[in-house]
Design a protein that fits this description.
Layout (H helix, E strand, L loop, with lengths): L9 H36 L4 H38 L5 H44 L8
Amino acid sequence: MHFLTKHEPTGGRVYTSFLAQLLRNYLFGSTVAVVGVGGALVFSTLSVPSNERFALGAIMAISLIIMIACELFVFYRHLLPIQAIFKAQQPTSGQLKTAYLHTHKFPVLSVRRTYGPHFLGLLLPAVSMAFVCIKLGFIKLPYF
């Protein structure tokens, strides 16, 4: 599945394919981690009345959207050196070297995205919304 026209250079198709595969894997992994693991932990370990489950589910969904937005912002910033060589008509050897070295840093950058935008983009909104919902009486859970 190519998103580019026939007139674009092969490098553009390679980058688009590379980006699509990275995004697909990244978003799938993040969603499974939050919904699968987080949902299983929350809904299997807490005895929550059905009317409060909706509020908890909404908190998780909103937090997931915020987390994905934060992650995508940082993800695209991490891709800039790689993207630059595919956008350049004649990439310089310096650009190629930078992109090559940056590609090797990508696993470390993925870990940083997990600890930064992934963790905080999910945790801060979820904790804040849960706190507000508890204060307003929508959810009856202890703070600990």
